[in-house]
Amino acid sequence: MGISEAQLKTWSAQGKTGQFIDTYNSIRGNLLDGSAPYPVKNCEVFLQGSYGNDTNVWADSDVDIVLKHNGAFYYDISGMSEKEQQAFKAVFSTDAEYGYKQFKADAEAWIKRLYNGVQVGKKAVLIPGNNSRRNADVLIAQQFRRYYSYEPWLHGYHEGVAFYGDSQRIENFPKQHSEKCTAKHKATNNNFKHMVRVFKNMRNAMIEKGLLAEGVAPSYFLESMLYNVPNEKFTGTYSNMWVECFNWTVTADRTKLTCANGLHSLVRDGTPTSWPVANFGAFTAAAKKLWES
């Protein structure tokens, strides 16, 4: 019963990082090159995903990069009062001259000029790797603001990114996710990210054994799931930590679980930024079966 402490310790280790750093730095430099057809001065490039959050395991390969346009922004003002919404609309009454659609088209064209074999997917642009570079997924996004207050010269909002997938606008907050995961790691005596890697490696083992289908448990949701677990559960051996974290998760009120960014529900149907209820249940059931096998 259970997985050996030695195996859990192996799974907790971070995967290689050298080549991914070189890949990121190289692509970042090209995306911010002054020759690009989009306004580089209004753009930023940063990492997200497992490498950006230091939760990568040995099986991870793709580097997730965000190319974000800050020269315009999408917004959500539903959290403000009617008076604040009216004040906002009085100022931002017209669309930006250079918005997301043009930026995305220009960015895709530039990436295709830079690299061979580029594949434009529904959400990201894949830059194939080579001997010196790993595969990279570039998310082309625009600034997003979720406002919670609006007064002259004092605007309160959470800043994230927005992009379109399958004609649906998707809004997310990758920087908040990363910052809060790092804070959680420090608050748990540097055990949080180790346990994330354990759960990620377990997920990979479940897939290999046919206990879980591909795509059911993305790393983002595993990180968020463990972010909800109280800090005091991350103590003792890896075996103890795993049991404490898993038992807390499966007995918690899942409707109160949030993504690590604190701005989206973790387990919820009908939204691309939350973990579907059936998938959450499939993962926890498979994890229990693997642990007990």
In sequence order, what are the helices and strands, one letter per element? HHEHEHHEEEEEHHHHH
Number of strands: 7
How far is the first residue's CA from the last residue's CA? Answer: 6 Å
The 3D shape can be described as globular
**What is the class of the largest domain in the CATH system?**
Alpha Beta
CATH superfamily of the largest domain: Beta Polymerase, domain 2
Largest sheet: 7 strands, mixed
Question: How many domains make up the coordinates?
Answer: 2
- In percent, how much strand structure appears in the residues? 15-25%
Give an overview in words:
With 293 residues, the protein is α+β, with helices and mostly antiparallel strands. The protein folds into two domains: 14-172, Beta Polymerase, domain 2, CATH 3.30.460.10; 177-292, no CATH class. The chain has ten helices and seven strands. It has helices at 5-12, 18-31, 49-52, 82-91, 100-114, 174-187, 192-208, 219-227, 238-251, 277-292, and strands at 43-48, 63-76, 119-120, 125-127, 136-151, 154-165, 168-172. Helix 7 packs across helix 8. The model has no long low-confidence stretch (mean pLDDT 94).
